Amino acid sequence: MKKKSTWMNFLIVAVKVVIAGVIAWLVEMSVLNNIFPKTDVIDQVLEAVSVFLVVFLILTVLGHYLLGLWNTQFIFIVITGAFLVSQIVFVYFLPDFLKAGGPLVVVLIMLTILVVTFIIERKLTIKKAEGRGSLTTFLRDVQKYVNDGDIDAAIKACGVQRGSCANVLRTGLERYRILHASGDELGEKETMEEIQRAIEEAMMLEVPLLERNLVSLSTIASIATMVGLLGTTIGMIRAFRALAHAGAPDAIQLSIGISEALVNTAGGLLAAICGIVAYNFFATKVDNFTYMIDEASYSIVQSLAVRKK
């Protein structure tokens, strides 16, 4: 059954690729060439790829809403949008001296946009994980409710606060309430182990959400460095080829090659620096946040243990 589903998904993607390719070719040859005539083959290819991605994205969204098919994850949508925006920026807004970097500049712009997108996504996710109100005030209130023996009020406060920390604490408190209401003659040690196990299970569900897309940031930083290095190498090849001409070297081609190398180097470093700084920032923030959750849950468990006595 799983194999059949895999082949069906592959067939759906293949059909969308063929349809998008045909539409992109027709639009490029019959419409865009008349509106924006281009002699450069690279510009024509980039334009056709942009149209292809737009059509493919539209078909994917239509398939999701009309047929319930979702064969493309969030990352593909982000990459598609970033490529389209980078293509528009390169063609219509980028200064000529940066366009001298060649087609790899489009890739570098796309990687930079991806970094910015994931930074915004991570910022919003962590903000949501902290909950609605002040996390410090929330933890102080929950601790007070537990010390006073008002477990229902503590659970209600978790429901109001929401977020990852509140979800973890609520899981432990609800487990304690269930054990207390069931009347099971469990010892203090067994009760605390049950609560700790429930908290650990909740942590296993929350932490991956906090760490999601951090790997994408580090991967983009590595790829940006390699793409910039590739552009630098291509530019230097162009420059040395200009020097290899018999007689006087071709000054124009030499300057174009050096400019291409430097632009790609700068673009690759920019995207890589942003990705590395963002990765380290959010990785540290997630570590501190999970440590705070561990400390809060440990404090709650100890307070419940005192009540059990």
Radius of gyration: 28 Å
* Pattern of helices and strands: HHHHHHHHHHH
| Largest sheet features | none
Considering DSSP H and I runs of 4 or more, what fraction of the residues is helical? over 70%
End-to-end C-alpha gap: 54 Å
- Number of β-strand runs: 0
Average per-residue pLDDT, rounded, comes to 80
Put simply, the count of helices is 11
Rough shape?
elongated
Query: Which residues form runs of ≥5 with pLDDT under 50?
Result: 65-72
Please state the structural category.
Answer: mainly alpha
Report the sheet-strand fraction.
under 5%
3D structure, described in words:
It is a single chain. By secondary structure, the chain is mainly α. The chain has a domain at 104-309. Helices cover 87% and strands 0% of the residues. The chain has eleven helices and no strands. The chain has helices spanning 2-35, 41-67, 74-93, 96-99, 104-130, 135-148, 151-161, 163-182, 188-211, 214-243, 251-308. Helix 2 (41-67) packs antiparallel against helix 3 (74-93), helix 5 runs parallel beside helix 11 and helix 10 (214-243) packs antiparallel against helix 11. The chain is elongated, with a radius of gyration of 28 Å.
